[in-house]
Amino acid sequence: MTQSEYITHVEPLRPLLLRVGRDFFRREEEAEDVVQETLLRLWLCRDRLAVDDGLRPIALRVARNVCVSMWRKARLRETLTLEEGHAAGRPDSEQADGRLLSDDGQLLLDIALGRLSPSERRLFLLRQEPDMSLDLMASITGMQPRSVSSKLSAARRKVYDFIKQHL
Description:
Elements: H1 3-9, H2 14-25, H3 28-44, H4 55-79, H5 82-89, H6 97-114, H7 118-127, H8 134-141, H9 145-166
């Protein structure tokens, strides 16, 4: 699926996805996060989607899965601390220092990303995609390009500050 096909065929599903999020969370903010996360996931697998496959059932399934994932992550975020995550993040049997440093760095990044709001996390991950412009990110998320830029900047700063604080 091309970028223009994505915009033409997936964007009209936004109201339906918003309703799925509202029905699950009963709050507008979380519902919008469901929409953006669903659109992100559909964007990331757009090369495997075909317009004639019937995008509506696929989008609904992804939206439901996103709702459940967000609910689980919210519960985990409430209880996860850096020490608990660190202890659970690597097996005791690891001996190589290089491997430990790599695992610690990845764990710190994972925890930092987990502390971002869902919209900040989406933007942070979208920016890692090759050839992803701010305008395209704005189109995918339904945000204004300036808002995308400022939220992305804030997300980068939060990740950087968290990692710097814990190194």
